Write the structure tokens for this entry.
Amino acid sequence: MKNAVNPDQLLTSHLVSQIKETTQGFEISVVDVKQRVVKSIKAKNIIYAGNKHALKYIYPQDYNLFEKTVYSPWMVVNVVVNEDLPLPGYWQNEMLTSDSSLMGFIDSATQHRKSGQDRVLTAYYCLPPESREDLINAERNKAIIAENTIKHIGNYFDEDITPKVKAVSIKAMGHAMPMPTKGYLFDDKNQYRKNKNIAYAGVDNSRLPLLFEAVDSGLTATQMI
């Protein structure tokens, strides 16, 4: 996909800060993070695939379409380990532990890696919405978070993996996943947008967010027989 796009049109390390409507279409303010400058880009059409809670600041005209969307905060803990740790043989490893927010982890050893790349065990925590404010304490509690994650993954391998851990990194995401509530699914917000030259995409557009595709296919199948 990257090779099919003109490199002058694919801008990494850029953040959209504002979208304004003009007589010709849109004028978009884009922050070049590396150069620390703001660029202005003109466009006739826009596909907005970012988190919709940011529309409050970027394009407030349509924020009302998404303001009732409830997001689940997530936390990702990357544990870099030595190669002599036994290979589980799975990309995704679900876990049931005393911490109900821990979903499990994925193991980079099960995918193709370039020579010299670290083996990383990536643990995922799905937190309840009321815990969003707790994420600001992740920096203060980083040692506890790392230790607990290493302990849980060690239980999976049935051994203490602490001596084999090279590094741990933690990423907190306050608005990571939408949580479907009553009336959420199949209520595509594009049908309500005022400007037809901007369209919305992403898992928080009230269609089929990620794993709910499996739920939908099952319900549809029961209606076919």
In short: The helical segments are 55-58, 142-157, 212-223.
